[in-house]
Structures are given as C-alpha cells and as structure tokens.
Amino acid sequence: MLKFPKNFLWGAATASYQIEGGFNEDGRGESIWDRFCQMPGHVFAGHDGKVACDHFHRYEEDIKIMSELGLKSYRFSIAWSRLFPKEGHYNEKGLAFYRRLVTLLHSYDIEPVATIYHWDLPQWIQDRGGWANRETVDHFVEYAETLFRELGQDVNKWITHNEPWCAAFLGHGLGIHAPGHRDWHEALRVGHHLLLSHGRVVQAYRNYSQEGQIGITLNLAPTYPGTDKPEDVAAAHRSDGFINRIFLDPVFKGIYPQDMIDLFTKRFGTIDFIQDHDLQVISQPIDFLGINYYQPNVVIHSEDDQLFNVEQVPDEGKKTAMDWSIHPEALYDLLKRIQKDYSNIPLYVTENGAAFDDQVVNGEIHDEDRIEFLDGHFRAAHQFIQEGGNLQGYFVWSFLDNFEWAFGYSKRFGIVYVDYESQERLLKDSAKWYKEVIHQNAVLSNH
Ligand code: GCO
C-alpha cells in the first residue's frame, strides 16, 4: 500500500456551466457560453448547458453521493452571471444557491473549494469588450469581493481563475471556446487582463481573510523535444514558453518570458497593453498553485506551423476518448519542475482524469481504463510526495459526466455516470475504487 499523508485532500471537481443547468432560474443572466452554444457549428450536435446535469436542482442528491464516496473536498465554480446578470445589478438570489451548496457541503464535512472564474463571463460584460477590455478587471474584483463578503466565512480555499490559457487562447486565438474570436493580439491582451484580475483579487482577498487561502489553477503540460536535435530542443522550449512559462513566470517571478514577448511582437504586433506595476500586482504571493494535468506535449521543429514552428509528435501508446496520450510519469516531472523552477508553496492537482467511452451494462459501468489511468497518476503523485514534494490534495476531473465544452455531452469524464434522459446518476467502478482509495488514504499495490 502506498500511503498518502494524513489530511491529504482527496476531492473531485466540476464547473458551473458544465453541470448546473437551471440557465434561467432565480434571475441568472446570459453568459458567453450560453451565447456561444447558440451560434451554429461551435458545439458538437448543437448541445448546450441549459439543463446539463441539472445540478442546480439536484445538488442535494449530488452532495449525498460525494459523501458516500468519502470525498474530503469538492471543487466547484461559481457562475458570475447568477450574481451579476445585468450591468449594475446584484442578484442576491443567484448567490443564495451557492450558500445552500456550501452549507450542505459543510454539513457532510466536505470542504468547499470555489473557483471564481471557470469561463462563463456574463454576456453583458462581453458586450462591452469582455476580457479584452481592461475595465473587466474592475468588474471581476467587484464580483470576487461580493463572494468574499457573502461566502468568505464558509469557503477557505479560493481559486481566482481556472486555466487562463484556455480562456485566452482557445476563446480568442483559436476561436474554439466562447466567445469564439480569432485574433491573437486580442488573445494576448485577454491573457494579460486575466492575470491582472487574478493579482487584483488576491490583493482584495487579503482584506477579507487572514486565514483563508487563495491561488490560481493553470493547465500545464510538461513539454519534451521529440529528438535531441538542437532545433527540436528549441521548438520544445518555445512550446513550453507558450503553454507553461507564459503564465507561470508572471505569477511567480513577476516577468513575462522575454523569448515569448519577442516572438509575439514579431508575429502579432506591438504589445501595448502591459502597464507599469501590472506585473507587480500579478505576482502577489499566493497560498497554493492548482495544477490541471492531462497529457504531456512532445514536439519537434516544423516550418508548416506559422505560429510557433512546432509540430506535435504523435504518440503510439494508449489514448483516452479525447485522443489524449496517457503518461503518469509526466505528472511527476511537472510537479518536480514547479518545485525546482518556481516555488515550494503547496500544490494541488485541481484536475486530472480521463474520458472513455463508458458502457452501461446492467446498470454498471466497468471503467477499468479510468481506474488504471487514475491509479497510475496517483502513484506519480505519491512518488513526488515521497521525495518531499509539497502536494496537498488531488481533485479528480470530474465528479460527474458533464458538458465537455465544444464536445458537448459526447465525452464522459465523470467517475459518476449521468443518464442525460432521466438525469439518473450511476456510480462507475472508478467511483467505487476511488472511495476505497480515500478510505485507505492509499493506492493499493495489488492494482
Ligand atoms: C478544464 C476544464 C474542464 C474540462 C477538462 C477536460 O479546466 O479544461 O476545467 O472544464 O472539462 O479539462 O477537458
């Protein structure tokens, strides 16, 4: 048995737009994801989050399941447009949902971890330029301060942003997430404003709590060159810059990587949106770093790619239903690298998990592949801890099958299966296995 430290925070994660539904309940306003889903061709089969897992109405049942599994913690996100559906209008009823949620979690002794922004910007803010407009930073601070004031007694761990890389670059560069823009210069400005809003909210939080903790969650992909040719090593360094260093360096070192600034300026024009002192704000000390890890990034140099001259090297090994490669050892490398190059603050894996094509057979889901996936990654985490690494918790993505963004409901990441017709929940074998892991606080060596 590989034992984890006492008080290791085993949890599972979700996000508001992916599970809540209740899109027009209690005064919720439109978000950019509501709008994006309506525009034809963006989301698989025209799916949207209007109903999703109907968690808005079923949260009691869902929390009961969490408790059955023995989860120590639950990471969820708050839908900004429930609280601020329209400009200048604070909707208390929208906040009340989260109060009920958090209260119930505490009654089951499950620690709430709240993500303030998981991509569902109110549409009225988008109409004023969204994250490309620096004023959105002020709106974000107002929203976060409302949360600290109203929920700060009951929530002790806050995550400012989830994966700003995706919000900035998938949303504004590649156009495959809301709001669906394709403008790299705008995407970079958005990335900067997201970071700035993170720093501002960390500063604001210190006025509300001296005990609570606040951090940010980044999606990080350990990057390796496909060969040891110097041009491929250089390609890997560039790719690492664009995926990892571009957010890690400002948060931890208060600088943007110079090679990225040079490259962006050359490709997309002058970078004119960084003001004096912004980086000082962005690099406010944080209490923990959340890491979302799914797969490594292996690249070689290529002239075909206009953006960074990099090309992914296909992986011959086993893949998930997202076609993502499976490499637990890369999680270990990633954690080590953060510790070595950035900081020794507490780390949480705030997301890790896999989609597979789950089949229901007589009411059961034998998702051996997901168990194997999680088992391997837990072992990698264990090794890191064993060597003195400061990893304090692990949140499986996801608690429930849910709306997987541009993939709609076609990809199932849950350890709990959702029948979208009946909204029935079924524990997959992975959920039962995870329950045992949590109970033993260990991964079992017979797996
Ligand atoms: C993410 C997202 C999740 C995804 C998951 C699987 O932060 O990317 O938090 O919303 O569903 O990563 O793609």
Automatic annotation (TrEMBL):
SUPFAM superfamilies: (Trans)glycosidases. The keyword Hydrolase applies. Its EC number is 3.2.1.21. The active site is at E163, E351. Keywords: Carbohydrate metabolism, Cellulose degradation, Glycosidase, Hydrolase, Polysaccharide degradation. GO terms for cellular component: cytosol. It is an enzyme of class 3 (hydrolase). One of its GO terms (biological process) is cellulose catabolic process. Substrate binds at Q18, H118, N162, Y294, W397, E404, W405. InterPro entries: GH (IPR017853), GH_1_N_CS (IPR033132), Glyco_hydro_1 (IPR001360), Glyco_hydro_1_AS (IPR018120), Glyco_hydro_1_beta-glucosidase (IPR017736). It catalyses: Hydrolysis of terminal, non-reducing beta-D-glucosyl residues with release of beta-D-glucose. The keyword Metal-binding does not apply. Belongs to the glycosyl hydrolase 1 family. This is Beta-glucosidase. The lineage of its organism: Bacteria, Bacillati, Bacillota, Bacilli, Bacillales.
